[in-house]
Write a structure and sequence with these properties.
This protein is α+β, with helices and mostly antiparallel strands and about 325 residues long. It is about 55% helix and about 15% strand. The chain is built from 9 helices and 4 strands, in the order H-H-H-H-H-E-E-H-H-H-H-E-E. It starts with a helix and ends with a strand.
Amino acid sequence: MLKSLSLGVLLLGATLPVVAADTLSREAPVPAACALPSTPLDLVTAVRLALCRHPDARTAWLNAEAQAARVDSARVPYRPTVDATLGHTRATGDSATPGREDRTSADLSLGWLLYDFGARAAGKAQAERTLEALRASQDATLQGVLQQTVEAWYLWQAADAALLAARESEAAAAETLRAAGVRQRVGVATKEDVLQSQTALSQARLSVLSREGEQQVARGRMAVVLGLPAGTPLALAEPAPFPENPALPPLEPFLTLVDQRPDVVAQRQRVAASEASLDQARATYRPDLRLSASQTWTLDDGGDADGGSIGLRLNVPL
C-alpha cells in the first residue's frame, strides 16, 4: 500500500489531466455540481468535490471575483458622468418675493475627464495587476487543495489496507492460540507456548484497535478536505490497480517551467501592481483636463428661464 501511495503521488500529473483542466478553473463552480454523490468516492470525484467545496478554494474564487469588480470600478473614470437635479421650493416670510413664492428648477450637467497625465491608467493597471496576482494565487491554492485531496484519498486507502492486514493477523493469532491449546492437551506443547500465543493474540487485537483509529482519522481528514464535517459518513471506491512498471512523466519539463509557478507569477504581478500604484500616486501631482457642460431650467410665478454652459477646465495642483 505504501508503494501504491508513492506511485499515486508520482502519477498524479498523468492520471488527472482532465480533472486539472476542468476544475482548476477561474470561474466559480455551479452549486449543483458540489453535491455529495450517493456512490463511493473515486479519486476523480473526490478531487472535483474538494476543489468545489474546500473553504480555501471558495475563498480564492471570491477574492478573485471581488478584485474583478474593482477592475471594473477602475475603468469608470474613463466614462463621462451625467447628473440631473430637480427641485421645488416655496419661500415664506420676509424673504419671499410677492408673486414668486413658488420656484421649480431643473439642472442637467455633463462631466468628462479628458486627460489626467496617467492617473487613471495607473489606477487601472494597479487593479489589473492585483487581479492577475490573485488569480495566480488562486491557481496555487487550487493545486494545493488537489494535492491534499490525493494524499488524503490514498492515506485512507492505506489505512483500510492496514486494518485489513491487522484483522488477518488477529485471525491468524487466534488460530495459533487454538492450535497451541490442542497441542498442550495432547502433551506436545507446554503452558508457556499457550501463554505466548495468548500474548500474540492480545497484541494483534491491540493492533486492530490502533488501525481502526487510524482509519477513522483518515476518514475525518478526507471529509474535512471535501469541506464536510469530520463525522460525515463516506465510502471510497476501490482504486484502479497500478501497472507493474508504470511510465512516470519526465521531470525535465517541470524543472524548466519554474517561471510559470503560480507563486512566482503571483509575486511578479504584485510587484507590477505596486509599481502601478506608485505611478498613480505620482500622477496626483500633475494637472488634469475636464470637459463640463450644463443646462438649467427655472420656472416660477414670474415666468420661466433657461440657460446653459459648456467649457474646458484645467486643474493644476499647487
